[in-house]
């Protein structure tokens, strides 16, 4: 795939359990590893990378993604890997003396503490139980169900879009309706909170137009990830469409510059999220 294509530690203490015996969500790793982590105290609704990318792809009134978008499925799996990386749950194995490339290094579970998100915890469980470990590229394929190995189909995350949409319904962003499409009925999720969608679109636009996005060593990791994942999922155009011609040209030029970066070199920077760069490399190879 052409890079420019598509542009127009769990604590060793007694385990805290809920009243039903299930482990409580442990957000310590999230706060420690993700500087942008918000445990719910913010007045703004916090969305995961998966929810943000899906929301960008959903048609506001119709409540479903484009039937012609065949990139969003793998894009959402990339979101899961990066979200787990930003929350300190997974990392890449050491490069070693021979300096293995990003796409050759295996994904290692760093912490198996629950994230509080069902999809993330399901993916994390698969990774923990897999021996030997697999690469980022393999996990994108396995979680998407796009593998020729029948032994790996058990790793497929099913109904991801519908499950993410239900999360957004619970957060008050979407609603649920039934629509008739001649031969079949389909559950759709039209937008109900336009403020959150507009805020997300503005966030993407400002991230692309901000000059500091080009300085990836100091750029906000979540903003950078959102831009690149939205491009990989082919939903970035939905955020850029309202821009003026001048801003549109600048935004697309900045994204192209990001796509042309040396991901291997960027991953070697101090404080870099290696798994994020590995996902970028997987989508642009």
TrEMBL record:
Topology relative to the membrane: Peripheral membrane protein
UniProt keyword terms in alphabetical order: Golgi apparatus, Lipid-binding, Membrane
Biased composition regions of type Basic and acidic residues, renumbered to the chain: 13-43
Family from the record: Belongs to the GOLPH3/VPS74 family.
InterPro entries assigned: GPP34-like, GPP34-like_sf
GO MF entries: phosphatidylinositol-4-phosphate binding
Region (Disordered): 1-43
Bilayer-spanning residue ranges: none
Gene Ontology cellular-component terms listed: cytosol; Golgi cisterna; Golgi membrane; trans-Golgi network
PANTHER family assigned to the protein according to its UniProt record, in alphabetical order: GOLGI PHOSPHOPROTEIN 3 HOMOLOG SAURON (PTHR12704:SF2), TRANS-GOLGI PROTEIN GMX33 (PTHR12704)
Descriptive protein name: Golgi phosphoprotein 3
Chief location category: Golgi
Subcellular locations according to the entry: Golgi apparatus membrane
